[in-house]
Design goal:
heterodimer, A: alpha/beta, 15 strands, B: alpha/beta, two-stranded antiparallel ribbon
Chain lengths: 418, 420
């Protein structure tokens, strides 16, 4: 067994939570991703008639009851996803009734990313402002309109009194929130971080991405020769992180380590990535350096992989320069559950940890009838079925790139498998 | 990475402000010193507003920055992006920055941008929603969409100056700007950046103003309050920290600081406005989602007492309040200051600048210059706390000004600016 020394300055991942179109749990996410199924279907919540696509990856709200969330009342959907995922992660970390290892409230920090928060509820409010015949415009719909809604809901639910920070850098929000959590743990500002992201579908983003012609009318096909764009989705992902000297680690092994992260900005264009992936490359290299890792340590990449022609090309170029051509397997979860916008980086980080735990990279998609990987891209794309990870303790690189050129890349390292 | 700079002093070398008082720093100083806001009538043509609610706000006159950002450049940006770009230009000029931030130089990779905002680009969001709701979902404008995201201002500043380091946008309501600066300080101390443009930006459009009014949060939201005498005879002027306060003045604008390592600033002969002192972040889990807790939660007090040790608290000689005239918010803030043990006379820069998170940053830097904030002649402090007692012209210039930002919903950011 390869000896993996406990990395310095890394944070131990001790709890995971997720809400996606696959279901209201990490296990549902794991099962769905490993099967290669797509959780993308005709949108039910939104008026999609006339758009280029009618597809979305929607969370089934009926699952909330089954997840024991009836105590949350009428909070915004993005808040509900966030709290559900954080509760799941917290319970895995500290047990259903808390434990002696649970920290004091003022030593808990919450870092959440998102880009929509309660926009869907706000849209209903505004529609009624414009047309009162639709019904009363109740202010209560706006209580979680602002982007701090999901993170604050998590902090209130946990009783956290440490730093609470919501980051909104579009599609990089979740990754950057995890990075901010890592830094807060490293400085000793907190002992435990609850970090993640949450976003819910809304008309504004659905219409906006369609207006940009970034949407694929068919299920998205990241890195494929015939890719045309992305599918939109919603959900939340959460990780509980502790410092490497936390007492609980004397008794149990972490799921994985958040060893490093990198953040950069393309400073190139408001929507298009740098064509050579310059900013993406910078973020990836910074993540590896921060993790005291080398490109040879990278076992796989969980790509941003939106399925848009420009992103996938630029990202493939960047990956090639960092880890060398098709040297590592690459997957894109967006082929399975769509682009979760501000929560994408967090949910994909959960998926990356699952891959490290299982010792196997989930496939991008298992539909055999589609075009294969784009031959113009030097990418070893994981398709159809899971791919075993040869090296224990290897690094999974999870990347997120955003409007405005903001980039975030996480380096997660696995624990030796028993 | 730029090497561990945890032992380095972080300094403020540049300040740029866009507010209802224009773009000139002397105008901002005079305004903060006077404590008098410049309020304008909010456009009611869209018929969002109630008949008898608040009517005025601290709005930016775009003509104040036309020479810095001409219309041909501004047209591709949302209003908050314009404010942020102008404020960043002013901050770099104030810092006498002559280096190459634009282009492929190494320095651009080392420059971060971290902004805080409560609402993001609200007018562009409103316009695109009107397209979707009143025309059709397919009518959404792609240009409006890309500029409606909260991180658009930070992205535009990065584009303008070629800043390729970390680019973050913090969204924690009234605490956004302070938390953004604290996050920026962290990036420098960790070595993730060598310098950072940090600050806060807000846009106020008629829809947002009408919503705040419906929440009863503004001066004038309760019609009767408009008939009361206002400070300095300015119609609807707010009364921060006053026992008779009845709401805040909504506002828009931006403030940007340039943060650098002290040794870097010294090497290039840059002026130093302040050194960053303590930074503290906390959250009150007892706060309702849209307001403040009745009393600070003991865990919050414990956290801030640990984050700002007694020796540091004793050194603080100005408390730069986030108070804006909110009845529960101002009360909460002073209770928290008392509970933690901060005992310094207070400034309330939001009296002049209105509610925007960056006001505290500006007020603190001016306090280090010896600028005091006048109170209304009939000011009646809401309590006996030192934090609501005004400093006077006979007090020496501040040596350490603590900026307090307590957001509705619970987020808190405290940081001190110390004399350089």
């Amino acid at each position: 067994m390869k000896e993996v020394t406990k990395p310095s300055c890394a944070a131990a991942v001790v709890g995971l939570g997720a809400v996606t179109a696959f279901g209201w749990s990490v296990e549902a996410l794991r099962t769905g991703l490993r099967s290669g199924r797509r959780a993308v279907s005709t949108a039910r919540q939104l008026d999609v008639a006339g758009h280029r696509t009618e597809l979305a990856s929607e969370v089934d709200d009926a699952g909330a009851e089954a997840s024991g969330l009836s105590d949350l009342g009428g909070i915004a959907r993005a808040d509900r996803f966030a709290v559900a995922s954080s509760r799941e992660a917290w319970q895995q970390a500290f047990g259903p009734n808390g434990s002696d290892d649970a920290p004091a409230a003022h030593r808990i920090g919450v870092f959440f990313g998102g880009s929509t928060a309660g926009m869907a509820e706000s849209e209903i409010f505004f529609a009624r402002v414009l047309d009162p015949e639709r019904g009363p415009s109740r202010l209560r719909r706006l209580e979680s309109q602002q982007l701090n809604g999901p993170g604050d809901a998590v902090a209130r639910d946990l009783g956290a009194a440490g730093p609470v920070e919501s980051l909104s850098s579009a599609c990089a929000s979740g990754a950057l929130a995890l990075g901010a959590a890592l830094d807060a743990l490293r400085t000793g500002e907190i002992d435990v971080a609850v970090a993640g992201g949450s976003d819910a579908l809304c008309q504004l983003t659905y219409s906006g991405f369609n207006a940009l012609r970034a949407i694929d009318p068919e299920p998205s096909r990241p890195f494929r020769a015939d890719r045309e764009g992305l599918n939109l989705g919603e959900g939340a992902g959460c990780l509980v992180l502790v410092r490497p000297d936390h007492p609980m680690l004397e008794e149990r092994r972490p799921l994985a380590w958040l060893s490093g992260y990198g953040a950069s900005c393309d400073a190139h264009h408001m929507t298009a990535p740098h064509p050579e992936g310059r900013g993406a490359e910078q973020a990836m290299r910074m993540a590896l350096e921060d993790a005291a890792a080398t490109p040879a340590d990278v076992g796989f990449a969980n790509a941003h992989g939106t399925g848009t022609p420009h992103n996938d090309s630029a990202e493939a170029t960047a990956l090639g320069r960092v880890v060398g051509g098709a040297a590592v397997p690459v997957t894109s979860n967006k082929g399975a559950f769509g682009h979760l916008l501000g929560s994408a980086g967090a949910v994909e980080a959960v998926a990356t940890v699952l891959a490290l735990v299982d010792g196997a990279v989930q496939p991008t998609c298992a539909d055999q009838s589609e075009a294969g990987p784009d031959p113009a891209l030097e990418v070893d794309l994981v398709l159809d079925e899971v791919r075993s990870l040869p090296e224990e303790g290897s690094v999974g690189l999870s990347s997120s790139f955003a409007f405005g050129g903001a980039n975030g890349c996480l380096a997660l390292r696995g624990e030796p498998r028993r | 990475m730029n090497g561990d700079a945890s032992g380095s002093d972080i300094v403020v070398t540049g300040l740029g402000v866009v507010s209802c008082h224009g773009c000139d720093l002397d105008e901002q100083r005079a305004a903060v010193h006077s404590g008098i806001p410049r309020l304008s009538e909010v456009d009611r043509a869209a018929e969002y507003h109630r008949a008898h609610g608040a009517r005025r706000a601290a709005l930016v006159d775009p003509s104040c920055y036309r020479s810095i950002l001409p219309p041909i450049k501004a047209r591709r940006m949302s209003p908050p992006s314009r404010f942020a770009v102008v404020a960043s230009d002013l901050a770099l000029a104030d810092a006498r920055w002559k280096g190459e931030l634009i282009g492929g130089g190494a320095s651009s990779d080392e420059t971060a941008v971290v902004f805080g905002t409560s609402f993001g680009p609200s007018s562009y969001t409103e316009r695109i929603l009107r397209q979707i709701i009143l025309e059709s979902p397919q009518a959404a404008s792609p240009m409006l969409f890309t500029e409606s995201v909260a991180n658009a201002p930070a992205a535009q500043v990065a584009l303008r100056h070629g800043c390729r380091g970390p680019n973050l946008t913090v969204t924690q309501r009234e605490a956004s700007a302070a938390l953004a600066v604290i996050e920026g300080v962290g990036l420098l101390r960790s070595g993730r950046a060598r310098r950072a443009l940090v600050g806060g930006v807000e846009e106020l459009n008629p829809l947002l103003h009408s919503i705040l009014d419906r929440f009863g949060a503004l001066v004038g939201s309760r019609g009767a309050s408009r008939r009361q005498a206002r400070p300095f005879d300015v119609e609807e002027a707010a009364r921060p920290q006053d026992a008779r306060r009845d709401g805040f003045n909504a506002a828009e604008g931006a403030a940007v600081l340039l943060l650098e390592r002290a040794e870097d600033a010294a090497r290039r002969g840059a002026p130093m406005r302040a050194r960053i002192g303590v930074c503290a972040r906390a959250f009150d889990p007892a706060a309702p989602s849209t307001s403040w807790a009745a009393q600070p939660h003991p865990a919050v007090v414990e956290r801030l007492r640990q984050a700002v040790p007694e020796a540091d608290r004793d050194g603080i000689d100005r408390f730069v309040a986030g108070a804006n005239g909110s009845v529960p918010g101002d009360a909460y803030e002073v209770s928290l200051a008392d509970a933690v043990g901060v005992s310094a006379p207070g400034l309330a820069p939001k009296a002049a600048l209105g509610e925007q998170g960056m006001a505290g940053l500006v007020g603190a830097l001016f306090a280090l210059e010896g600028i005091e904030t006048a109170r209304a002649p009939d000011y009646r402090p809401l309590s006996a706390s030192p934090a609501v007692q005004a400093s006077t012209a006979t007090d020496p210039p501040a040596r350490s000004a603590l900026v307090s930002a307590c957001a509705s919903g619970g987020a808190i950011g405290w940081m001190s600016f110390d004399a350089p």
